[in-house]
Amino acid sequence: MQKVIKLPITSIQQEFQGLNNNLYKMIGTNNPILYSAAEQLFKAGGKRIRPIILLNIAKSTSKDNNILIEQKRLAEITEIIHTASLVHDDIIDNCDTRRGSNTIHNTFNNKIAVLAGDFLFAQSSWYLANLNNLEVVQIISKIIIDFAEGEIKQGTKAFNNRISVNDYLDKSFYKTASLIACSCKAIIMLNKNNNVRSKNFYLYGKHIGLAFQIIDDILDIISTSQELGKPAGLDLKNGNLTAPLIFTLNKRSKLYQLIDQEFQFKNDIDKAISNIKETNSIQKAKDMAIEHIQLAIHIIESENLSKKEKKNLLLICYYILNRFS
Q1: Are 214 and 288 in contact (CB under 8 A)?
Q2: What sections of the protein cross the membrane (predicted)?
Q3: Which of 68, 207, 213, 313 is 20 to 30 Å apart from 169, CA to CA?
């Protein structure tokens, strides 16, 4: 039986609890509808993977084993930015559930959901400016630009059966990995330990971010809606062609027709998923995720950190792959 790997939070338990408490305080607004919409997002839960990554990096690279106030705030800002992006994603993807609960646009309407997402982006920008670190402001601001670029790249490639693996990875970077990469770099930039290389942690974040997205796309194919907390096969339905399908295209020519007709018939998504599962495409996608995780592991191993300090950063790598099991 395979050992279940959990996200490492023991060493950051106090900071993690503080983060959960502060998220509610940070979305404070006089408008009850906007507050209710934002509050619903945080109440829906989520594993808080991104801030856990950042807090572990801050702890592991600290000279005195303490996480700076600015680093804690950056972890909170990152989670707010991520949450804001989910609101807009759900509207674009016409997704009615997220983490097993109704999405904001489903609970209220599209207009409120757009405003709620914009409000969260604005709140994160305000707190970001208050860090009083121009370099960090610049790198985190780029994330929001990348989100928009990623959505445009995804939209222009919808139902495009000529999409390449490189196109897919490029889009995945903008939509997912950029947030993790940039925030990993920024958390080091706030550090007083000059021996730690922020560029390396940018690459660490980039590779675990890409692996995370690839595994997410595999789960969209092999999991049930109940397991996902949202409709299974939603990526395909929206024309978002991911790694498992791209790897299958060369082996199952009938997929081209299903994509050309935009999966318009009732059983088209099921047919596409069956075709994917009948090949080794899911394993090929997982192998690609493993390659990125191996690169992330190599980066951490090359850092001048003790075995104890490296442990949780490596555990994060193994956790991301373990989501597949």
Answers
A1: yes
A2: none
A3: 313
Q: Is residue 95 classed as helix, strand or coil in its secondary structure?
A: coil
The verdict on residue 202 lying in a domain is yes
Higher pLDDT, 311 or 225: 311
Q: What pLDDT, on a 0 to 100 scale, did the predictor assign at position 193?
A: 66
Inter-residue contact 289 to 215 (CB < 8 Å) = yes
Q: How confident is the model at residue 100 (pLDDT cuts 50, 70, 90)?
A: low
CA atoms of 297 and 310, how far apart (whole Å): 10
Q: State the total domains in the chain.
A: 1
Q: What is the per-residue DSSP string for 101-166?
A: EE-HHHHS-HHHHHHHHHHHHHHHHHHHHTT--HHHHHHHHHHHHHHHHHHHHHHHTTT-TT--HH
In a domain, 253, yes or no: yes
DSSP string, 205-270: HHHHHHHHHHHHHHHHHHS-HHHHTS-TTHHHHTT---HHHHHHHTT-THHHHHHHTTT-STTHHH
Tokens of 212: 């995370």
39 contacts 27 by C-beta, under 8 angstroms: yes
What share of residues in the chain are helix, strand, coil (percent, to 5)? 70, 0, 25
Residue 181 tokens read as 């990469």
Residue 90 and residue 113 in contact, taking contact as beta carbons nearer than 8 Å: yes
Q: What is the pLDDT of residues 194-253, one digit of tens each?
A: 677 889 999 999 999 999 999 999 998 998 766 766 667 888 988 999 999 999 998 998
Q: Which domain holds residue 201?
A: 10-322
Rounded-to-integer distance, Cα 10 and Cα 14, Å? 9
